[in-house]
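Example 3.2
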Amino acid sequence: MISRTAELLGGFVAGDFFPSAHRWLNAITGVQGRLEKNFKEMDSLFEREIKARESAGRGGGGADDDTFTTILVNLLREEKSDNEVGLTRDGVKALLLDLLFGGTDAMAEAMVWAMAELARTPRALARAQEEVRRVAAGKRHVDEGDLERLSYLHAVVKEIFRLHPVAALLLPRECQQRCRVAGYDVAAGTRVYINVWSIGRDAGTWDKPEEFRPERFEGSPIDYLGQHFELVPFGSGRRICMGIPMAEAVVELTLANLLHGFDWALPMGVRREEVDMGEVFGIVVRKKEPLVLVATPAKLL
């Protein structure tokens, strides 16, 4: 459902370009029907989860049930008993959608791109793996406390966000007043898109921009926190993505454990240059062809 939602939100919709005729255009092209079907499936899932917790009584599944959904249902019950206008059933469903959809697809795709690039660059894979296993020596898993010592892994993640930003275009902005930018007159009300994919591959800014080279970030102050405009995969300013800390922690921690727990190789007979790195555009930039790798459990202890 998450994948279908992302496809619907990021796909081409003719009605967006012809607002006065969007209703019948969306009906003819079938977009409206797909949207309604997707909405009903998602709504049914949330309704089932909410009812399950309501029928279980306060605390949901038991005294130890402190899941996000149960807390929301308890708050919803309190709002009703106090007879105040506050959290609604639809509001609970909207928050659950944010929890499920926000960042889930983006972080998964970031890790796919990271593993694809590492598999195509044995030198980088070996160095990242050596660092992770040295820092987490004697342990079966890498934990968050280890991340601050994984400087090369952090450089790998930066390079992934440069080459493969999860969103090729940032959320659109609207110019509030007439201005002039780089010799171009921009009228008030103009919708502006920031092409972070193009910025990350600008030959005037990056040396050999098409190459996967995490070393370019070693000793470099450039980061993706919005202060360096050559690397803005999460945006910048007041509208910067608030999920940066979560994305950074999840991607680095998952990637570190993948490298720590397994040895990775391409399938037999597949050469590095044969790995298809084609992209599919949407809300999240996906790898066109699924990534296939051979994972061998590492002997850690």
